[in-house]
Here is the input.
Amino acid sequence: AQKVTQAQTEISVVEKEDVTLDCVYETRDTTYYLFWYKQPPSGELVFLIRRNSFDEQNEISGRYSWNFQKSTSSFNFTITASQVVDSAVYFCALSEAKNYGQNFVFGPGTRLSVLP
Amino acid sequence: NAGVTQTPKFRVLKTGQSMTLLCAQDMNHEYMYWYRQDPGMGLRLIHYSVGEGTTAKGEVPDGYNVSRLKKQNFLLGLESAAPSQTSVYFCASSLPPGREQYFGPGTRLTVT
Here is the structure.
């Protein structure tokens, strides 16, 4: 069965620090997709990135970067030079290619607080 | 282009009452989903639909029913609300397969 673990329940950093949010996943499928979502205090869920299992290239988008390592089943998210606006709950999610609709699983989330 | 909308935004029910939550999307997505979000548990899938006229059970379907009579709408019904159904409900839609889901703003439901 597929599973997503986000071991860090809460993280606090001071503005301008770098922070990495960990995501470890389990799946038996060879084709799968990984996602990160942000949920700011206002409550909406914002899509950040999608990765498929055949693309292990790291991705950078501004201050955000993602490190996908199949060898360790991890898809970690790093925020460089954090800002107060980055304060949110971040969710990692996994979807297996087969039975797609049923197999979209979210991790429990990591609450990031960026202090001024 | 409104994306995914949900009505109502807030609702308080008494135990045993019924209600329907409406989700609408204007992105022509085939797949639609209903999740509930409870503290410390992330999002859990209630029901989903892979196209107009189809529905299927997710991880926590008990106590809920759904209907997808039109491609753009996905309704979630609670026939007899219970305090355990107090939660924030999110609707989402996506293109298949393996594509990202786009979420509505959520409905906060309290059952007393």
Q: What stands out?
A: Chain A touches chain B through 24 residues (CB under 8 Å).
